[in-house]
């Protein structure tokens, strides 16, 4: 069954929605330039309100590995998502600092990018359209090449996620912009997104 990651959650009410919907993962964005940025202190508070069965992913862009490891080892997050230009050397360094799992994000703009993603030594790969959290869809035809399980991201929403799951059977789908209205998470869109993925089809009502 395809897993679900609801990314860019920032508020206590988002935790309540997640607890009700039970995605496998939620994401906190620690990239300072993001409008979804949360401080480690905010994330720690939100994490306390989160059902412990749901894994919390920290999203980082070229962050100091020491800082990433600190959040993992303190238990504020369960996995780190590397969403910048992190290299294999960076991953090796992070492995020395923590045993927690890593997700490496790749921007899918060519078949070559997909091949490069497959070679990653991270525990998981995430295929996205670019910088992250932009709501932009990439050319899904590039996914025909891939032979490794992946998080499928980039512009997914309640209108296209059923097709994404049906055609590609990803390890998990990842959404942020598609479950927002006017820049904040929308509980009803979150609910619809989760229902569609779980049932494998679009809601009729
Ligand atoms: O959300 C952000 O602002 C962000 C900033 C920098 C790096 C990553 C970021 N978000 C990651 C995600 O939200 C998801 O992993 C993914 O990109 C899906 O986003 P969307 O296309 O908006 O559904």
UniProtKB/TrEMBL annotation:
Pathway: Amino-acid biosynthesis; L-tryptophan biosynthesis; L-tryptophan from chorismate: step 3/5. GO terms for biological process: L-tryptophan biosynthetic process. The keyword 4Fe-4S does not apply. It comes from the Bacteria. Coiled coil: none annotated. Its EC number is 5.3.1.24. CDD domains: PRAI (cd00405). It catalyses: N-(5-phospho-beta-D-ribosyl)anthranilate = 1-(2-carboxyphenylamino)-1-deoxy-D-ribulose 5-phosphate. The keyword Amino-acid biosynthesis applies. It is an enzyme of class 5 (isomerase). GO terms for molecular function: phosphoribosylanthranilate isomerase activity. Keywords: Amino-acid biosynthesis, Aromatic amino acid biosynthesis, Isomerase, Tryptophan biosynthesis. Residues 5-194 form the N-(5'phosphoribosyl) anthranilate isomerase (PRAI) domain. HAMAP family: PRAI. Belongs to the TrpF family. This is N-(5'-phosphoribosyl)anthranilate isomerase. It comes from Fusibacillus kribbianus. The lineage of its organism: Bacteria, Bacillati, Bacillota, Clostridia, Lachnospirales. The gene is trpF.
